[in-house]
Amino acid sequence: MQPYPLSFRPVLKQTIWGGRRLGQQLGKPIGDESNYAESWEVVDHGDDQSIVANGELAGQTLASVIANHRKWLLGKHVPDGPFPLLLKYLDCNRVLSVQVHPDDAYALKMPKPDLGKTEAWFVVAADPGSLIYAGLKQGVDQQMLREAIAAGQTEQALHSFNPSIGDVVFIPAGTIHALGAGLLIAEIQQSSDTTFRLFDWNRVDERGNSRPLHVDQSLSVTDYVSGPVAPRRCEEGVAGWQTMVECDKFVMQVMEEGTAKVGGDGKFHILTVPRGTVTLSVAGQSMKLDAGATVMLPAAIGSCNVAVQAAGTAVMSSHLPD
């Protein structure tokens, strides 16, 4: 089968903290409601499945493509099992709960085994005063965190900062974190739905009930050593790909100007355009990718060109490490 870029229908999620920017800014096919929180762009996790939207594989789930064309899509060295990564966009219309994710070893021993979750964020938009919570303040240990949670003052133990458009934030498993109100985020993560909630800002529903917390599990998987997490940014004036995150779960690169190669290395690559417009050239054919567009390049594809078309553009590439 001739390799070609795969595009997918997004899997849209609605919650009380969602808004409408997924449609307004990223062109997602949201309905009339105003609570669209997440757009899962590339996913193979149980019932949540990306559906191919183009080419001879149109209408097939990502799981089906992997089952029938695994080497073509993923390459030689990806372990058996479902697709290992998940790419999504999040529209945070209100502050999210404070969470922490376990690592693989812990998650695989849970009653419903799953992968752990290491993730990374690219800040697409940020309202003035928006906050990101990432990591514990220096010196906070387990007992101090437990006491802050019990007092309803978890925020006092957390490191926070005001993010800017273009910031990248790396959240390894075990890092306590929360996205604040007014943020639009692109996220690459392990394909996992394992989350422990340790604080929900003392919120209650109309009946006075709070959402369940997972305090003991959270405390047991939290990283008390690494401390505050600082944002990363592309170096200004540098053309081509810049590596923002390189870990044992994925590599995340960002390009804000110039032209660069992608693919042709025997690996799959996920490309998404958080801002602006790029041109992807494959085997002499070109396609324009506007803000919010996502494609997956199969491992079997040859080297492609990605060209930034205007200032203010950012394109993000994710793949597995060597």
UniProtKB/TrEMBL annotation:
One of its GO terms (biological process) is carbohydrate metabolic process. GO terms for molecular function: mannose-6-phosphate isomerase activity; zinc ion binding. It comes from the Bacteria. Keywords: Isomerase, Metal-binding, Zinc. Its cofactor is Zn(2+). Zn(2+) binds at H101, E119, H177. The active site is at R197. Its EC number is 5.3.1.8. Binds 1 zinc ion per subunit. Pfam families: PMI_typeI_cat. SUPFAM superfamilies: RmlC-like cupins. Residues 9-107 form the Phosphomannose isomerase type I catalytic domain. InterPro entries: Carb_Metab_Reg_Kinase/Isom, Man6P_isomerase_Firm_short, PMI_typeI_cat, RmlC-like_jellyroll, RmlC_Cupin_sf. PANTHER family: FRUCTOKINASE (PTHR42742:SF3), TRANSCRIPTIONAL REPRESSOR MPRA (PTHR42742). This is Putative mannose-6-phosphate isomerase GmuF.
